Amino acid sequence: MKSWRLFLFFALIAVLLTLGITTASAHQPTFNTNGSPTPESAFVIEDIDLSLAIYGSLPKSGTVDFYRLDVPEGHVLDFQLFVPFACEEYRPQMALIGPDVSGSSAPLKLKLPLGMGVAAVALGQWGTFFEPFDPSFYFAGPSIRHVAQGGTYFIAVYSTQDQPGVYLLGMSGREEFSAGENWREQKSAYDRCEVGANNWFWRQWRSFVAGSVLLLVPFFGLVLVRRRRS
User: Fold this and answer.
1) Fold of the domain built from segment(s) 3-229
2) Which terminus of the chain faces fewer neighbouring Cβ atoms within 10 Å, N or C?
3) Which residues, other chains included, contact 76 with Cβ-Cβ below 8 Å and sequence gap of 6+?
4) Per-residue confidence (pLDDT) for residue 148, from 0 to 100
5) What residue spans define the domains of the chain?
C-alpha cells in the first residue's frame, strides 16, 4: 500500500470513529423535564415498541416519577434503571404497577391508581455499564421484566434518599435513533448528579474527544508511513 493511501486509510478511520462518537446511539433519548409526580400526570410512553433512554430527576426524598404505558396482551415490559457516574452514592428505586402485578410493597408509599395491583419492587445489585455509542459510564441498577396480560401499566421511579439526583430509565425495544438537533445539550444536564449544573467543559467534553481522535489517528498513520519508508 502506497504511503498516501495508508494516510487516507487512517484518516478515514478517524472520521468513522468521530461519527460513531457524535451521531450513533442505540436508544432513543427522551427527557422528562417537568417531572410526573402522580399517576394522573404520568409521562406517557406512546411508542411501546421503541427502545428508549428516558432521562429524569428527583429533587428530594419521597418524590416519584410515574410512567404510563397502554399495552396489549403478551407485550413484554422490560426496563432497567441507571444513574450517571457523577451520582456515585445515589440509588433510586423502581416499581411496576399494573392490573396483574403482585409482589413486595414499596418502602415509599406509592399512590396506586384505582383497580391496580400491588407494586412489584425491582430489587437487584448495582453494577457498572459503559455506553459506547455516546461514550458515558453509568451505574446499572435493578431491572423489571414482565409479560403483560394487557391494559394500563405504570413504572414508578422514586427515591428514599434525602438528596437530589438524576436517573436514566432504559426500555428495551426496536433500535431506532431520531432525536432532535439539541439532544446532546439536553442530555448534558443529566450527566451530573443535579440537573442544571452549568459546567461548560462537562457539556463539551465529547467534542474534545472527537477532536483528539481526528488529530491523533492521522498522526500515528504518518508515523507508521515513515517507519515503513525507513
Assistant:
1) Jelly Rolls (2.60.120)
2) C
3) 145, 146, 147, 148, 172
4) 95
5) 3-229
